[in-house]
Amino acid sequence: MVIDVHSHLFMEIYQCDNLPKSTSGLKNFDLSDILKKISKSGIENIVVVVQDGSNTNKICLGSNLLAADLQSKSMGKFIGIGSFEPLDIYDNLNIESLDKLEYFIEKMKLKGLFFSPSYQRFSLCNCKIYPFYLKAYDFNIPLYFHLAALASPAKLSPLEYGQIHLLDQIAIDFPKLKINIEHMGFPWTEELFAIMEHAENIYTDISEIIMRRPYVTARNLALAKEYKVIDRVMYGSDYLGSNITEYLNKIEKETDWIKFELNNIIKKFGWPAISDKELDGILLNNALQFFNGTLSY
Ligand SMILES: [Zn+2]
After folding, report:
1. How far is CA 178 from CA 46, 183, 267, 287, in A?
2. Among 74, 126, 191, 293, which one is most buried in terms of CB atoms within 10 A?
3. CA 4 to centroid of ligand 1, rounded, Å
4. 8 Cα: distance to centroid of ligand 1 (angstroms)
5. Ligand 1 center to 52 CA (angstroms)
6. Domain extents for the chain?
7. 50: CA distance to ligand 1 center in Å?
8. 268 CA distance to ligand 1 centroid (A)?
9. What is residue 211's three-state secondary structure?
């Protein structure tokens, strides 16, 4: 069984002034067929992550309403992680979004919140953002942070805001708030593990890097084992699109690599193999621990 903790399945790129409100607006969308295919594939849950860029670049990945609708209509097979830009166009607390946030968590049952400091142009430790973290803490939902390099043009994604060391202060201030750092925080992966070692609420996902950099991924998983944080590493696909067959092929290819290829690379370098229990943790159990029972619907 597998949980994909980080996908953008059906959360395509939209202009932020024309966002989808439900799955009814999606082209060629047949939920019962999709759910049949997912259940045959052995995927337990698919987390869909929304990305709000309404103030910065006017582009959003999916929408909070779409993610909530998908979650509800699929009876929780899909899990929605919402997104809000925490600062307004004047760089002040985005109070409008903060108000909406409560509605989306309480009424629409979104299961977590995503922030991308680089795309959304804010420093993780900016105290103006703290009301968002406090809401997540109060509602006991996890945060997702994209603290990693980005493939976008440099001017659209300044690395200054992606620095992983800033996470340490959040770990100090919110020791019980579950946080997923996407993409193993590359290229600051070892720094991330050092923070994870002393902050048990911090998790990470291996999305996007598996096929692009298999040797780096293998080295990083060996490092995670050495730092004793491998029980907080989770599988994610980072799939962006709406083609269910393409999505399932990607999952199959990547999870097969984890199960059957990863240890071949690890052994080549003489590092200790990742055990079956640790592999099961990456594919399923660490995600269950991260969401702490909130995935049941
Ligand atoms: Zn992503």
Report:
1. 18, 16, 32, 11
2. 74
3. 11
4. 6
5. 12
6. 2-291
7. 9
8. 30
9. helix
For the stretch 144-192, pLDDT in tens is 999 877 777 777 777 888 789 999 999 999 999 999 999 999 999 999 9
3-state DSSP assignment of residue 209: helix
Q: Architecture of domain 2-291 in CATH?
A: Alpha-Beta Barrel (3.20)
Q: Does the N-terminal peptide bond of residue 187 adopt cis geometry, omega within 30 degrees of 0? A: yes
DSSP string, 266-285: HHHTTPPPPPHHHHHIIIII
Ligand 1 centre to CA of 7 (Å) is 6
What's the 92 CA to ligand 1 centre distance in angstroms? 26
d(CA 24, CA 246): 21
How far is ligand 1, taken at its centre, from the CA of residue 31, in Å? 22
Q: Tokens 């109060």 appear where? A: 138
pLDDT > 70 fraction of the chain, expressed in percent and rounded? 99
- The Å distance, Cα 44 to ligand 1 centre, comes to 19
CA distance 131 to 86: 9
